[in-house]
Design goal:
686 residues; mainly beta; 26-stranded antiparallel barrel
Length: 686
């Protein structure tokens, strides 16, 4: 008999309203025993469940289908492949041999599998993640219980690569929407100051949301660096917590040279870094980081990419509660490192009230703090310590006679108390006030201009002149008595004008200053919503009416330009010009052009008078689905040399690995050496 047969006598059909359908080339049925044997492209269909095999034996009384040869069971989006086995259409119980199961992002196999379609127990199980390939990491377990989307438990579990098993893991459970190994990287290469090296990093789960492991590096010219590392992520209702830590220790047997203070770098070297960010409910956040370096050069020597971003690490912990119009915070900053000076807060408790409306259109502003401040002795600078209480209260009243003009007079006062004062005083209290205004004019013009090439649908020019003035002649009062802990930090940008926004409250200067700004914005309609900026051009400068020794009345003129005519093009310019000399003090540009699919180019210039003049070019090009090529050049125009040249190839191995091959040349750097060759292997997701 050929064709399809409806099993109308099966109890399963009458109970659930579904009818199993058998199909194949040859049928052999026994109505007495209610058994049917189908051979040759045998198939049984029951709802969204389909079973195919070389031979299927189905019992209508027990609802059991036994299949041999090319067993394939499809259940919704899941597909199970085995040599042979049985499946109960009513209970969904399954027993198969040599099963292969694929459910993205994993592939499982086992010698025998028992259970149901919702929960299966594998013996001698192997699990591949994302793709079943020889270069893909896999895990092996003597016994593994798998439910849809989750490994419930595993016994005798080990991790390996290329059929090797080299890491044994404890009993655990793992959801498949999270990475099994969240971090696995390897790097081999050569660097002038390190010699031939190999580095390895690995994290594995120990509890849900927590991965622990270690980073290790072996350097032919230095020795072995190793240290524990890990990361964590937890989400619970409206709370989240994220963080990581990493560390390293080495007995450095190489040429260690000297640190930033000119002292010899010790042989015992180590570092520790921890970062934490936590949100509890809608109002409370906890953020912190800790950075310990045994010497100023350890990251520069062994983790130079991290060192370039942060050369003086910070260590702090802050807890903040935010209300509707206020915030309350506790902030602690410590410095576990001894080779640079940092203002320490041990701690600072601070209250900030946002501008709050009062009657008659007046807004009030208030902040206060209590802090224990320390600045340890460093070089010729003495040790400083003080307990400081500080408060500021201000009022402002916006006046808008016409919609396009706003004039806001402001007034405020600050009182600050210091213990351990200088100049023969035990304590010192400073009080002073400020007055001023902020004036803003907003004008606009629209133009019916369209350009389909640049996706321009009309133009709108916003012109916003702003004039601000602050007068606080007593702000510098008592400087000789105040421990200068919160002092002015180096910056080439305009600093906040009002004393309410100044952070260097221990080294304030008298104010009698006018600030003029001109802001220009060119916009067009956005196809999705609202408008988008095509260009921004802003100017700003200060004029000081109090002529102080060594300070010019007119400040440098600051100019900022940003052009974003299309998503693939952005050009930024920052310029600082001294009108007295006249001379250009600083000029920085950045041009970025990208094809989101194939290539990206970034060109930048950095000029600071009497300091440096650098040109930077970075290019990345995607050749195909597997290979990208990269190049980077940094040219020092003052010394007429390429400080850095880097050329690389980026390769993707399937969906699992990424490999980067890079060769780099350096000049002018005394520690990093003149040549580097790197091969980096990174596990994209596992």
């Amino acid at each position: 008999m050929a064709g399809a047969m409806l099993c109308l006598l099966a109890p399963l059909a009458s109970a659930q309203g579904l009818q199993p359908v058998l199909d194949g080339k040859k049928f052999d049925s026994n109505y007495a025993t209610k058994e049917t044997v189908v051979t040759g492209d045998a198939r049984i269909v029951y709802g969204d469940t389909v079973l195919t095999a070389d031979e299927i034996r189905y019992s209508g009384s027990t609802n059991l289908a036994t299949a041999t040869g090319h067993f394939v069971l499809t259940y919704g989006k899941r597909r199970l492949v085995a040599d042979s086995g049985s499946f109960n259409l009513a209970t969904k119980a399954i027993h198969v041999r040599n099963l292969r199961l694929g459910e993205f992002p994993i592939y499982l196999s086992g010698d025998t599998v028992d259970g149901t379609l919702d929960e299966m127990v594998f013996t001698n199980a192997t699990v591949f993640f994302r793709e079943n390939a020889g270069y893909t990491p896999s895990i092996h377990a003597q016994s593994l219980t798998y439910a849809r989307g989750k490994i419930l438990k595993a016994e005798g579990l080990s991790l390996g690569l290329l059929s090797g098993r080299f890491i044994t893991l404890p009993h655990f459970e793992q959801t498949l929407d999270a990475a099994f190994v969240s971090y696995l990287s390897a790097k081999v290469g050569y660097r002038g100051n390190l010699g031939v090296f190999t580095e390895l990093g690995l994290h594995v789960p120990v509890t849900p949301g927590v991965q622990l492991g270690a980073d290790a590096g072996l350097y032919s010219s230095r020795g072995l660096m190793v240290g524990p590392s890990g990361r964590y992520h937890r989400t619970d209702m409206d709370s989240t917590m994220d963080g990581f830590f990493r560390s390293g220790y080495i007995y450095d047997s190489g040429d260690r040279k000297t640190d930033v203070l000119g002292d010899a770098v010790p042989a015992n070297r180590s570092y520790f870094e921890w970062q934490h960010l936590q949100q509890i409910g809608e109002h409370f956040t906890l953020a912190g980081q800790l950075n310990y370096w045994s010497d100023s050069e350890i990251l520069r020597d062994f983790r130079h990419q991290e060192f370039y971003a942060v050369q003086q690490p910070d260590s702090f912990l802050e807890a903040a509660y935010t209300g509707n119009n206020y915030s309350l915070s506790a902030f602690t900053r410590v410095n576990p490192n001894t080779y640079f000076r940092m203002q320490e807060r041990l701690p600072e408790i601070r209250f900030d009230q946002l501008p709050t409306a009062l009657p008659l259109g007046v807004f009030e502003r208030f902040n206060s703090s209590a802090a224990v401040l320390e600045a340890p002795a460093f070089g010729a600078a003495p040790s400083l310590r003080t307990d400081r209480l500080d408060a500021y209260y201000g009022l402002e009243r916006p006046i808008t006679p016409v919609p396009w003009f706003t004039f806001t007079p402001v007034a405020g006062g600050r009182v600050t108390y210091y213990s351990d004062a200088l100049g023969g005083k035990n304590t010192y209290t400073r009080t002073f006030g400020e007055v001023g205004f902020d004036a803003k004019l907003l004008s606009s013009g629209t133009f019916d201009y369209k350009n389909p090439v640049w996706d321009v649908d009309g133009l709108r020019h916003l012109f916003e002149p702003m004039l601000s003035y602050r007068y606080a002649p007593e702000a510098a009062r008592g400087r000789q008595y105040i421990p200068p802990i919160d002092s002015q930090v180096f910056s080439t940008y305009l600093q906040p004008l009002s004393i309410a926004d100044s952070r260097n409250i221990d080294t304030l200067s008298a104010l009698n200053t006018l600030r003029l700004q001109f802001n220009n914005t060119l916009q067009t309609r956005d196809a999705a919503y609202g408008s988008r900026n095509l260009a921004e051009l802003n100017f700003a400068a200060d004029y000081r009416f109090d002529h102080l020794a060594g300070v010019k009345p007119l400040s440098d003129i600051y100019t900022e330009l940003a052009l974003t005519p299309a998503p693939w093009l952005r050009w930024e310019v920052f310029n600082r010009f001294d009108p007295h000399t006249p001379s250009q003090q600083e000029f920085n540009t950045a041009l970025e052009i990208s094809d989101q699919e194939w290539w990206k180019l970034r060109f930048a210039t950095h000029y600071l008078r009497n300091n440096y003049q650098e040109y930077y070019l970075e290019y990345r090009h995607r050749l195909n689905e597997v290979y990208d090529v990269t190049a980077l050049w940094r040219y020092d125009a003052l010394n007429r040399r390429f400080n850095e040249q880097s050329y690389g190839i980026y390769q993707r191995l399937g969906q699992t690995w990424a490999v980067r091959y890079e060769v780099a040349f350096y000049r002018g750097q005394t520690r990093e050496g003149s040549f580097a060759l790197n091969i980096e292997v990174e596990l994209l997701k596992f």
